[in-house]
Specification:
Layout (H helix, E strand, L loop, with lengths): L31 H17 L2 H4 L5 H7 L4 E2 L14 H7 L7 H28 L3 H25 L1 E4 L8 E4 H15 L14 H19 L9 H16 L25 E3 L11 H4 L22 E2 L1 H11 L4 H4 L4 E2 L6 H4 L14 E3 L8 E4 L1 E2 L1 E3 L10 E2 L2 E6 L1 E4 L2 E4 L1 E2 L18 E3 L18 E4 L1
Antiparallel strand pairs: 1-5, 2-3, 4-17, 6-8, 7-12, 8-16, 9-15, 10-12, 11-12, 13-14
């Protein structure tokens, strides 16, 4: 965030002096303005604090991804890895009940986020009458509360109206929920500005949320019927998207994957995101590592940072790319499909007769400081850094790193990592660790020494 959110602990300290006769006064800044700024920030920070954890693969990210027709997470190997009690199978097959852990934990995370905004508003309102920063913070927290409620409405068809911690929540549905969320956004949008984007709620973010609310209003009104998209709603979508566009603050990124790079906080396509820069201790790299092969080591500096053989894209989703471009490989036709960061020399691509047992000389060299794995949809045999065991130094030659066809050593067998299209939940022949095309969308954080921690890319929520 441009204005770093800090949780301030206000305390009085006593300086004990022994054998000291000089008691001259030391003047420090204890202005009311400085104290007020810290107090306001200390109430805002907890409302944003749970966001990184909520958007992990075991909570919202996993629930939203695996429940679609775009991604699948089958049991791997013997059927135990990533089975996790069947929670991801239930998500993909839409057979989950109230006992599904991913749904439960997402609900709990969102409930915490919503309650934190209520607390922030309650604490800030007494200050708002005499402090302009506090008044603006109340508007920001009302907008954040409305956004959290819009997530609830989108996922579970309900919103919660609650203005203080002493009240019971009023549960709203359908048009009543839409009207409440709309009124909260409209009440504060003109109070906000765009000086704290993209990690904080801004005027542009609220205008975008309003456009999203009107766009989906027909479904929210009648989630189980046939939506009727009213012309008035569609006019509002145009009105509020135009406000974002005409602000002049945002531009399309010149390169698609830059939106999801480590340094994307400064990317002018981002309107609202979860700030994950390194000054925040809760940052994670889950969106960068989850789909990658466990034999993929994206960072030359960290030989323990690897993927985890999680979800793959579904064959049906892949076919939508194929159908869109006909005889042209989508990797050549669409910048969103694939980004080649290194090229395997043509003379090494043919692996006929080459096996992990005899490929000691089948490699090429790269500079470790510039090495970057390929992004997008990863198909076929993968190439990358190789070590003898997780955590051991990578193979090198003359100060450069050797790039081999990647191998997996699992359950007594050794094979090349070959991502094939077919992957499903039932067929025992398709439970290999490497099965399924993988996706590297978010840049694997250059700071993550384990692959799981220290994410450095903002998690994009609205562009």
């Amino acid at each position: 965030m441009k204005n770093k959110i800090l949780i301030s602990i206000l305390s009085l300290s006593t300086l004990l002096a022994v054998s000291c006769s000089d008691l001259s006064e030391q003047v420090i800044d204890e202005s009311l303005d400085a104290q007020s700024d810290n107090i306001v920030a200390s109430f805002i920070a907890p409302a944003y604090g749970p966001l990184p954890d909520a958007f992990t693969h075991t909570k919202n990210y996993g629930m939203q991804l695996i429940s679609t027709d775009q991604a699948i997470l089958p049991p791997r190997g013997s059927g135990n890895d990533w089975y996790d009690g069947g929670k991801y199978i239930e998500l993909h097959q839409h057979t989950m009940t109230t006992t599904n852990v991913v749904v439960q934990q997402t609900w709990d995370a969102f409930r915490l986020m919503l309650s934190r905004t209520v607390t922030a508003i309650e604490k800030l309102q007494p200050l708002a009458a005499t402090n302009s920063d506090a008044a603006k913070a109340v508007a920001e927290m009302r907008a954040l509360r409305a956004y959290y409620n819009m997530l609830f409405l989108d996922y579970w068809g309900i919103a919660f109206k609650k203005d203080s911690s002493g009240q019971d929540s009023q549960i709203l549905r359908r048009q009543e929920a839409i009207s409440y969320i709309e009124s909260e956004f409209l009440a504060v949008v003109n109070t906000l500005d765009n000086t704290s984007r993209p990690g904080r709620i801004s005027q542009a973010a609220v205008n975008g949320f309003l456009a999203q609310l009107y766009l989906n209003a027909a479904v929210y009104r009648d989630p189980y019927g046939t939506p009727s998209f009213a012309a008035a709603d569609m006019d509002k979508v145009i009105e509020y998207t135009n406000k974002v566009i005409n602000s002049g603050l945002f531009t399309l990124s010149a390169e698609y994957f830059a939106i999801f790079d480590d340094n994307n906080h400064s990317n002018k396509e981002l309107i609202f995101s979860i700030d994950q820069r390194q000054d925040l201790t809760t940052s994670h790299n889950r969106l960068g590592y989850w789909s990658l092969s466990g034999s993929q080591y994206p960072l030359a500096a960290f030989p323990k940072a690897n993927g985890t053989d999680g979800p793959a894209i579904t064959p049906d989703f892949y076919q939508t790319w194929v159908q869109a471009y006909g005889s042209t490989d989508p990797a050549q036709a669409d910048a969103r499909f694939y980004k080649e960061n290194f090229t395997v020399p043509q003379n090494l691509k043919d692996l006929t007769g080459v096996t992990p047992a005899n490929d000691a000389n089948h490699y090429f060299l790269v500079d470790g400081s510039t090495y970057e794995i390929n992004r997008g949809i990863q198909r076929g045999i993968q190439w990358g850094l190789r070590n003898s065991a997780n955590g051991q130094p990578f193979k090198m030659e003359n100060g450069q790193y050797k790039i081999y066809p990647m191998i997996e050593q699992r359950n007594g067998f050794t094979n090349y990592v070959n991502h094939v299209l077919e992957v499903d939940l039932e067929d025992p022949s398709h439970k290999d660790y490497a099965d399924g095309y993988r996706v590297s969308k978010y840049q694997f954080s250059r700071h993550s020494d384990t692959g799981r921690n220290r994410g450095n890319a903002d998690i994009v929520l609205y562009v």
